[in-house]
């Protein structure tokens, strides 16, 4: 009789399912997906649009350039940032108003080039043109 009781207790233990390893696996997978999902976001490939800008104006334009070393040029002449604001404001009051071409060196940051565009807008040039190089024309 004793033997039968021992067999039943072993069988009773087999009737229960141990869910602890299943929960461990579930939480491990959850943590793995939580870590890898933000990393997958940065792996997205982006193809920039092709350049299809219009031709530059042939007459009645002013060029403002930001060189590699951070100096400003107004029609190829060096100018201080404080004087640039005054000159651009005076040019925007002329009739007919000239087109403003903004050129920034490729090694300058977006922040500086956009700051120059912002300055042009504040001085009255609402439609400043950003001059770029065509693909393959770099030396």
How would you explain this protein's 3D organization?
Helix content is 43%, strand content 15%. The chain is of the alpha/beta class. It folds into 2 domains: 40 residues; 71 residues, Nucleotidyltransferase, domain 5 (2-Layer Sandwich). The chain has a 5-stranded mixed beta sheet with strand order 3-2-1-4-5. Strand 2 and strand 3 form a beta hairpin. The longest helix has 22 residues. It is rod-shaped, with a radius of gyration of 34 Å. The relative contact order is 0.11.
What would you say the CATH architecture of the largest domain is? 2-Layer Sandwich
Examine the coordinates and then state which fold CATH places here, giving the name of the CATH topology of the largest domain: Nucleotidyltransferase, domain 5
Helix content: 40-55%
Distance between the termini: 97 Å
Structural class per helix/strand content?
alpha/beta
Identify the CATH class of the largest domain. Answer: Alpha Beta
Residue runs with pLDDT of under 50 for 5 or more positions:
none
Strand content bin = 15-25%
Provide the spatial order of strands within the biggest beta sheet.
Answer: 3-2-1-4-5
Characterize the largest beta sheet: strand count, sense, and whether it forms a barrel: 5 strands, mixed
Tell the overall outline.
Answer: rod-shaped
The strand count comes to 5
């Amino acid at each position: 009789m004793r033997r039968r009781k021992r067999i039943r207790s072993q069988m009773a233990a087999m009737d229960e399912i141990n869910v602890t390893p299943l929960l461990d696996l579930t939480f491990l997978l959850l943590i793995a997906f939580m870590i890898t999902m933000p990393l997958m976001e940065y792996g997205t490939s982006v193809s920039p649009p092709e350049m299809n800008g219009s031709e530059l104006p042939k007459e009645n334009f002013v060029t403002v350039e930001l060189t590699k070393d951070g100096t400003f040029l107004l029609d190829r002449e060096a100018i201080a940032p404080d004087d640039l604001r005054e000159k651009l404001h005076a040019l925007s009051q002329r009739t007919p108003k000239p087109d403003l071409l903004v050129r920034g060196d490729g090694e300058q940051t977006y922040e500086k080039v956009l700051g120059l565009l912002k300055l042009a807008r504040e001085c009255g040039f609402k439609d400043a043109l950003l001059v770029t190089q065509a693909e393959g024309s770099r030396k």
